[in-house]
């Protein structure tokens, strides 16, 4: 029996049952097997974390691998969270089918019964807010060359208001709009995560490292497969070693805005075999590694919420690099 304890809706009539059960009746196992892809189930993938929903519970049948052009991609079934309002309904343009939802939060009852909203407070966590969840199939592509671009939102015209948004018809994309009215700048600076800036500065001083501008890392290495956008980059001999490299701390926004993912970038051995696109997980260190343009990048699977143990980070990265390249 369908679980109706959460809000749901569908973009098409044939998707209503999927919306009710939060997932389609089939998985993508056969699709992944036919392409030699990995099958994860319901999870968040570090490589494309910024493009996924906030919570793993909103994903299903996650598969990843090399796209036809050789780039790294993820295909998954998602629940797209659409905000709902007690008095004005679904806060998203276009038609919806089978919609069922109610106001939630500390004062959700009164938000539901009154013709106006008296509180915007919402509990945190998956399926906690005032929302309807819409089943979609998502294709996520990793494009490291676009790391410094601002976030662009393009939707069909019937699902985005014409007020304050740009019609893309004159640019050859009829029936679609771009959120906002001003063309985005060609590049933006990757800003340091100020919650961590003092920690980066202390690390640089303690280990005689040079603190670089985060955006420069992406400009100098546009294909570097780091997980997210650099917020802290420290260059020099890796702490405790004579190996030149960089400590790289990246962020991916959303609910992880206060966290960073720690990694190490260094020269790959000249004879190192290419890694599969998307990288290789080393279960011995719980790090993932990928080689691109002669550089090997190793990053922690888990994000950091406080403290920076460079001794463990560097030791794990060196071990991972040795395991992946066969040099150890």
Would you mind describing this structure in some detail?
- This protein has six helices and 17 strands.
- By secondary structure, it is of the alpha+beta class.
- It has three domains: 8-142, no CATH class; 151-184, no CATH class; 197-325, no CATH class.
- The strands form four sheets. A seven-stranded antiparallel beta sheet has the order 11-12-13-14-17-16-15, sandwiched between helices. Strands 2, 3, 4, 5 and 7 form a five-stranded antiparallel beta sheet that branches. The chain has a three-stranded antiparallel beta sheet with strand order 8-10-9, with no helix packed on it.
Kindly summarize this structure in a few lines:
The protein has 328 residues and is α+β, with helices and mostly antiparallel strands. Helices cover 16% and strands 29% of the residues.
Tell me roughly what share of residues is in helical segments.
10-25%
How would you describe the shape?
Answer: globular
How much of the sequence lies in strands comes to: 25-35%
- How many strands? 17
Please give the largest β-sheet.
Answer: 7 strands, antiparallel
Low-confidence stretches: 106-113, 185-190
Mean pLDDT across the residues is: 85
Structural class, from helix and strand content?
alpha+beta
- Oligomer state of the chains in this structure: single chain
Distance between the termini: 54 Å
Order of helices and strands: EHHEEEEEHEEEEHEHEEEEEEH
Count of helical segments?
6
Gyration radius, rounded: 22 Å
Number of domains: 3
Strand order of the largest sheet: 11-12-13-14-17-16-15
């Amino acid at each position: 029996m369908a679980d109706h304890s959460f809000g749901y809706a569908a973009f098409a009539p044939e998707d209503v049952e999927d919306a009710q059960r939060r997932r389609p009746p089939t998985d993508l196992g056969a699709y992944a097997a036919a392409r030699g892809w990995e099958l994860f189930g319901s999870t968040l993938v570090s490589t494309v974390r910024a493009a996924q929903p906030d919570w793993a519970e909103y994903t299903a049948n996650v598969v990843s691998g090399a796209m036809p052009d050789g780039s790294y991609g993820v295909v998954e079934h998602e629940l797209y969270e659409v905000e709902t309002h007690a008095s004005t309904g679904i806060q998203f343009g276009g038609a919806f089918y089978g919609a069922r939802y109610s106001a939630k939060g500390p004062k959700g009852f009164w938000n539901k019964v009154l013709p106006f909203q008296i509180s915007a407070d919402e509990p945190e966590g998956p399926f906690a807010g005032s929302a309807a969840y819409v089943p979609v199939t998502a294709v996520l592509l990793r494009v490291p060359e676009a790391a410094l671009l601002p976030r662009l939102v393009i939707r069909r015209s019937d699902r985005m208001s014409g007020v304050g948004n740009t019609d893309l018809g004159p640019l050859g994309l009829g029936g679609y709009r771009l959120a906002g009215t001003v063309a985005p700048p060609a590049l933006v600076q990757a800003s340091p995560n100020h919650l961590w800036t003092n920690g980066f500065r202390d690390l640089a001083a303690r280990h005689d490292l040079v603190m670089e501008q985060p955006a420069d890392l992406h400009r100098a290495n546009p294909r570097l497969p780091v997980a997210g956008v650099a917020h802290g980059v420290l260059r020099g001999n890796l702490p405790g070693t004579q190996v030149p490299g960089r400590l790289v701390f990246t962020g991916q926004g959303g609910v992880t805005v206060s966290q960073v993912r720690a990694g190490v970038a260094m020269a790959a051995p000249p004879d190192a075999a290419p890694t599969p696109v998307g990288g290789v997980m080393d279960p011995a260190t719980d790090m993932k590694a990928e080689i691109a343009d002669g550089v090997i990048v190793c990053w922690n699977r888990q994000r950091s919420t406080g403290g920076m143990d460079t001794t463990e980070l560097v030791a794990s990265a060196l071990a991972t690099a040795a395991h992946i390249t066969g040099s150890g």
